Every structure is written in C-alpha cells, then in structure tokens.
C-alpha cells in the first residue's frame, strides 16, 4: 500500500487541530492509517514506529507540519492529501469571532506570539495552550506573567515545571489548569472536551477530565446547572504538587457569588493533600461534597507510599437533611455526587447512594445469556476516570483493590483472575485514552478506530460475557460516536458468535441533549444496535461489577 506525504514548512497547528485533521483523514475511504503532526523529535519517532516516515520527511524540522497517509492505492492516497490541503486551507481562512479570528470580514489574522494575541484581545483573561510539551511550560509562564489564567491542554510537561508554574500562578492570584487538562467550563464557555450544560449555582473542581464531563452532564440532565467547572490536571493532588490548583479553585468558587454549592472530583492522590482539600472545602462556608475516585481503598501518593485516606461524613443510606449538616460530604460515586449537588442546590433532602439491588436484575439477565466459556468482563474506555471507576467497582466486588489489580498492557487499569474459568482468563479494563494509544493518533473521543479494533479482537476470544464501554459527547468529540461504533458492534457480535458465545454490551452515555450529537439521538442509535445504555457511568460500573461477581459464583459452583 502506498504511503503519501504532505510537508508544510514553517506551518504550525496545535495538537487539538492536528488530532481533528488526523481523524478526518483516517475516516476517508481507502485510508488505512493517517497521521498529522509537527515534526518534533518525539513525533518523528512515532512516524518511524508506525511505518509512516518516508525519505520526504527525513529533513523535516520541529516547525514543519507533516501529513502522512497509508492508503489502499495511489488514488486514495492522492485524494487524502487533497483533502488535507483543503482542510488546512479552510482552517486558516476563517473570519470573525466565530472562526477564531480577531476581526470581522476577510481572512482571520492569526497572531504569531502570545504577546501579539494579548495586544489584539486586551479583554481576554484566559490563555488556552496546546503546543508540544517541550515548549508548553515557557508559553504557560509567559501567559501567567501577562496576567492570564491558563488552560494547559499540553501533556509531557515535567513535574518540576508543573510545580513551578502553579507556584507562580498562586503568587499572582491566577489559575493554572493542567498540564494535560482536558476539560473546563468557565462561565459556560467550554474549554477542551466539554458538554453543553446550563448555567446554575453548582461549582465543580476536578483532577479528572471525563469525571468533570460526567458529573456536569448528569447535573444538567437532573435539572441543575453549573456556574464553573475547573479542571486541575491529573497530577494536582500528588504530594509534590500539593493540590495548588485544586485549592485555588475552591477559593475562587467560594468567593463567587453565583456559586452556592461546591463539588470536588478527584483522581487518587496523596492522602495529606486530600485532607487539605477537605479542610478548604469545609472552610468555604458553602455546602460541599467530594468524590475521591477509588475511595474504597487506600490512596497512593506520588512516591508510591500507601497512606490512609481522609475520613469524612458519608451520605447515609437513608439520606441526610441539610440541618446541621457537616461538610464536606463524601459521595459514593460520580452519579451520587451529581445527585447530591443538585439536592444541595435546591435545599432538598440528600439522596441515598445507589442501591446494589438496582443492578441485580440486569446483571442476572446478562449472566443467564452468557456462554459456558464467557466467564469474564472486559471494559474498553475512552475516558480514564470512567475506566478507573469501573475497574474499582469490579475489583471491590471481587474482594480486591486497584493497587493490587493493575494489568501488564499499556493503559490496563484492571486485570483480575476470573475464578472458575480457564487458566489465564481475567477481567480486564483498558483506558484507550492512555498516552500509549494516542501517540501519533487522535484520542479515541475523536477517532474510535483503536477501540473498535480492540472490541472486535476481544469479542473473538469468546471469553467475555460482558463488554462495558463509555460513549462521550460534546465539543471535540466525534460528531456521531454511536454511528462510528456501529460497524464494530456488528463485527464483534459475529466474532463472538463464531467463538460459541453471545455478545453483550452495556454503555454509559456522557452528554446532554444540547450537545451537537444529541443525547437522545445517540442513545436510540446505541439501543438499536443491541447496546444496553445505563443511566450513568456509575450505574454501568455497578452492573459490570455484579456480573463479575455472579460469574465468579457460578464458576466456583461448578
């Protein structure tokens, strides 16, 4: 198959634009593989590893944009490069505010430096930075020195640089969201991957991108609204970082007159930092709650030392009223956090955590339909937090903890032996948004092909009685994720049946009806393909965990 390349010297596009371009080219008929990158040393290594580096690209430098396409034939390759040229030209010819330009009429003027951008937009107060990691820290520092809050989408920023940037931000009374921050909603404006959520009194802070998306979307669907949702980057609660952005965000929301309820969503971090978060929320003077991902087990600090998680008042099974309420409350899962926040905002009685019996009927139905060799559960996720939520639920149902259950594959957050099965049979949860899967490729939120391939391959093993997936809508995500998943579902069903089993899938659908993809439209399309759609990622995780437990019980009974 021919490999065709397009080299654009001294042409820059940020990583988000390049991911979108790669996804658009990959979806073309006859294209086997495509990559659009800046020719940095790290990206050149990726082109080598994927077999897309050609002699035409050997002399490319870090300021050059490279497009490489592996196509079925010369005609398909030529068509792909023509489309790449058209898309790049269209991106550079937008006009007005709606296209990212700085003026009305005619081609948009694109500033070449942060300084010129600030001069053109003196009213701006947030800089969104998406440049290669080796340059990101310098640009973020310049933005902070210019008095701008920073949304740092870039990854591969060193931990030392993150600590220094956050100290500078704190000194200047600014927020440094990131690095590797995927999601924020600032006064309703989406940054990165985000959903169309109504404005309201609930302020959310999270070290998790998809966790923020899930909670804010659920708040919207429950009738509530969000004032701001602030991402911190996944390492913010590490001991050396000290939760600087998380704590500053809590302070900012506490001072915001439009925010009456505070919600914290956190990936596992240092226990001491988590305690400081609880103390800061308690001192805010506003009703507050948190959900610490994997709170069933000990927290792990950035140095790997296990420490006891901070204790907090857990919302009781019978529900708790607001009178004399201590704070912050500890939610049971992401859905519970959303429900409690809406209740707090309305001054209503707090809901109880999800009843385990809610998952029982569906789990029994799935297990009854499973084939004799199908003794395990497989999770294939685009969102890292949603993957960890499912893995934690499955591990807890089987009497384990995530710290004991990590896999050997890249991005595998759970691998636990499935009792009663054949040797080597294991429950598995993969985070396909992990760096190992996105180097040189679009994120699975944009291009679902990596997950589609994995779904078909794992269905063909004939050992998985249930697949659990996440489908995420909103800005930046695929324009029709259910439609993009349909061919893989059909192929996986055929592969599973050929292996002597049944094909069963439960999915969580993160988004709202106001997202461009349309929540109800996507739900109907998934259900038409035989997918069970859960009310939330937490509900889907509960079903998967119960299925794993029932399969284990069946295996032991044999």
TL;DR of this structure?
The protein has about 550 residues and is of the alpha/beta class. The chain has helices spanning about 15-25, 40-50, 75-90, 115-120, 135-145, 160-170, 210-220, 245-255, 270-285, 335-345, 360-370, 385-395, 435-440, 450-460, 480-500, 520-530, 535-555, and strands at about 5-10, 30-40, 65-70, 125-130, 150, 175, 185, 190, 200-205, 225-230, 260-265, 290, 300, 305, 330, 375-380, 410-415, 425-430, 465-470, 505-510, 530-535.
Can you walk through the features of this model?
The protein is α/β, with parallel strands linked by helices. Helices cover 38% and strands 18% of the residues. The chain has 17 helices and 21 strands. It has helices spanning 15-26, 41-49, 74-91, 114-120, 133-145, 159-171, 209-221, 244-255, 271-283, 334-346, 360-369, 384-397, 435-438, 449-459, 481-498, 519-528, 537-557; strands at 3-8, 31-38, 65-71, 126-129, 149-152, 176-177, 183-186, 189-192, 202-206, 226-231, 261-266, 288-292, 299-300, 306-307, 329-330, 376-381, 412-417, 426-431, 464-472, 505-510, 532-534. Strands 8-7-10-9-11-12-15 form a 7-stranded mixed sheet, with helices on both faces. A 6-stranded mixed sheet has the order 17-18-16-19-20-21, sandwiched between helices. Helix 5 runs parallel beside helix 6 (159-171), helix 7 crosses helix 10 and helix 14 runs parallel beside helix 15 (481-498). The longest helix is centred in the C-terminal third of the chain and has 21 residues, at 537-557. It is globular. Residues 94-107, 296-309 and 316-325 have low confidence and may be disordered.
């Amino acid at each position: 198959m021919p490999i065709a390349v397009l080299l654009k010297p001294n042409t820059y596009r940020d990583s988000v634009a390049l991911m979108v371009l790669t996804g658009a080219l990959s979806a073309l008929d006859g294209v086997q593989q495509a990559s659009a990158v800046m020719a940095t040393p790290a990206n050149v290594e990726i082109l080598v590893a994927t077999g897309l580096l050609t002699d035409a690209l050997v002399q490319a430098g870090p300021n050059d944009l490279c497009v490489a396409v592996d196509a079925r034939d010369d005609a398909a390759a030529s068509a792909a490069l023509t489309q790449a040229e058209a898309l790049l030209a269209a991106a550079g010819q937008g006009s007005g505010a709606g296209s990212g330009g700085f003026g009305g009429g005619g081609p948009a003027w694109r500033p070449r430096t942060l300084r010129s951008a600030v001069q053109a937009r003196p009213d701006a107060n947030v800089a969104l930075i998406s440049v290669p990691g080796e340059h990101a820290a310098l640009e973020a520092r310049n933005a902070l020195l210019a008095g701008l809050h920073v949304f740092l989408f870039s990854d591969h920023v060193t931990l030392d640089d993150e600590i220094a940037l956050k100290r500078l931000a704190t000194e200047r009374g600014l927020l440094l969201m990131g690095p590797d921050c995927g999601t924020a909603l600032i006064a309703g404006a989406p940054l990165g991957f985000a959903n169309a959520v109504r404005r309201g009194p609930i302020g959310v802070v999270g070290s998790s991108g998809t966790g923020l998306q899930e909670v804010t979307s659920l708040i919207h669907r429950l009738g509530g609204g969000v004032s701001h949702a602030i991402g911190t980057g996944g390492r913010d609660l590490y001991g050396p970082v000290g939760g600087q952005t998380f704590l500053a965000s809590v302070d900012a929301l506490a001072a915001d007159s439009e925010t009456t309820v505070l919600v914290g969503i956190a990936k596992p971090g240092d226990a001491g930092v988590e305690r400081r978060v609880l103390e800061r929320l308690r001192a805010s003077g506003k009703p507050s709650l948190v959900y610490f991902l994997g709170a069933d087990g000990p927290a792990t600090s950035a140095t790997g030392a296990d420490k006891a998680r901070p204790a907090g008042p857990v919302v009781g099974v019978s529900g708790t009223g607001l009178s004399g309420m201590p704070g912050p409350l500890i939610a049971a899962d992401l859905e519970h956090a959303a429900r409690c926040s809406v209740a707090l905002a309305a001054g209503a009685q707090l809901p109880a955590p999800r009843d385990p019996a809610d998952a029982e009927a569906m789990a029994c139905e799935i297990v009854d339909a499973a084939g004799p060799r199908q003794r395990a559960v497989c999770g294939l996720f685009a969102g890292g937090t949603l993957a960890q939520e499912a893995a934690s639920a499955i591990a807890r149902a089987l009497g384990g903890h995530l710290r004991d259950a990590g896999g050997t594959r890249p991005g595998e957050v759970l691998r636990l032996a499935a009792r009663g099965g054949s040797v080597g049979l294991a429950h598995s949860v993969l985070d396909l948004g992990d760096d190992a899967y996105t180097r040189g490729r679009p994120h699975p939120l944009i291009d679902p092909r990596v997950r589609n391939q994995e779904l078909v391959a794992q269905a063909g093993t004939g050992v998985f009685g249930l697949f659990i997936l996440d489908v995420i809508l909103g800005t930046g995500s695929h324009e029709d994720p259910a439609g993009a998943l349909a061919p893989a579902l059909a192929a996986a069903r055929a592969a599973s049946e050929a292996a002597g089993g049944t094909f069963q899938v439960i999915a969580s659908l993160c988004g709202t009806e106001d997202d461009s993809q349309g929540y109800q439209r996507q739900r109907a399309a998934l259900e038409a393909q035989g997918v069970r759609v859960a009310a939330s990622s937490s509900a889907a995780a509960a079903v998967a965990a119960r299925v794993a437990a029932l399969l284990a019980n069946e295996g032991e009974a044999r």
